[in-house]
Amino acid sequence: MNIIMLGAPGTGKGTISAILSEKLGIPQVSTGDIFRKNIKEGTELGKLADSYISKGQLVPDEVTVKIVEDRLNQEDAQNGVILDGFPRTIVQADKLKEILETKGKKVDITINLTTPEEEIIERIVNRRVCSNQECKTVYNIVLNPPKVEGICDKCGCELITRKDDKIETVKNRLEQYFETTSPLVEYYEKEGILFSAVVSKSINKLGPDVAKDILEHLKSMKTI
Ligand code: ADP
Questions:
Q1: Helix (H) / strand (E) containing 109
Q2: Phi then psi for 50, rounded to 5 degrees?
Q3: Which terminus of the chain is more exposed, N or C, with fewer CB under 10 A?
């Protein structure tokens, strides 16, 4: 099954994708994580991606599509993937359709996450991530703090703040989302494969609760 996670930065795409990946036994493919890994390793792709990501802009479509295409060709992606943060433009969505079609596959469901904007900003500013690339656990220093400040509960590595989680950059990222990415909601709604969910503390629904709702929905669709 191929699942797309759609939603503005800070809505919980990564957290929910990780839960779904574990429960469904299919890999999480996060373009943001692939870029960050390359930035850390100082590759050419990393240098190019960093010049966009640090300004809160999208990495160009041709670069992003190519890395996703390569990832989808790998062995472990053949039974399906959870695409976390891809597609983010109509061009990317059209290309994804083409890539999957050549493999006789399709997007089965697109999860559209929404969160009130003030909560998004608060959440991103309080976000800390594990610096260990193999772990990448995400914390919120208010809602879901680690047991020991600055240290990952799971692997003991240092927690860091993502460079693009600065308030000025977050504002650009949100603007980019509403201008360029949000039209994909209608795109997938028209295809009849959109499932929307609100992630908000105001209704007592955070990432893990929404992940449960999504799994229930997939069961009711008889897709799992
Ligand atoms: P978030 O959803 O919190 O913004 P991501 O880790 O998904 O975080 O993405 C971080 C950054 O990586 C984005 O702001 C963007 O610059 C870049 N990026 C990730 N995915 C894509 C994509 N599909 N197309 C273009 N740029 C992307």
A1: strand 109-114
A2: -60, -35
A3: C
% of the chain surpassing 90 pLDDT: 94
Longest dimension (CA), the chain: 48
Please list the residues that pair with 112 across neighbouring strands: 6, 196
Burial of residue 77 (number of CB atoms within 10 Å: 0-12, 13-18, 19+) = middle
Positive or negative, the Cα torsion across 159, 162, 168, 170?
Answer: negative
CB 187 near ligand 1, within 6 Å: no
Task: Find the 58 Cα to ligand 1 centroid distance in Å.
Answer: 6
Quick: pLDDT tens for 157-169.
999 999 899 998 9
Q: Is the pLDDT of residue 220 over 70?
A: yes
**Residue in 45, 48, 59, 136 to alter for ligand 1 test, most ligand atoms within 8 A of Cβ:** 59
Pocket-testing residue among 40, 62, 110, 164, ligand 1, by greatest number of atoms within 8 A of Cβ: 164
Structure tokens at 187: 């795109």
Indicate which atom in ligand 1 lies nearest the CA of residue 173. 14
Report how far ligand 1's centroid is from the alpha carbon of 31 (Å).
6
Q: Are strands 82-84 and 3-7 parallel, antiparallel or unpaired?
A: parallel
DSSP bridge partners of 159: 130
Confirm whether pTM is higher than 0.90: yes
Q: How far apart are CA 3 and CA 21, in angstroms?
A: 10
Tokens 């680690």, residue? 146
> How far, in Å, CA of 166 to CA of 52, rounded?
14
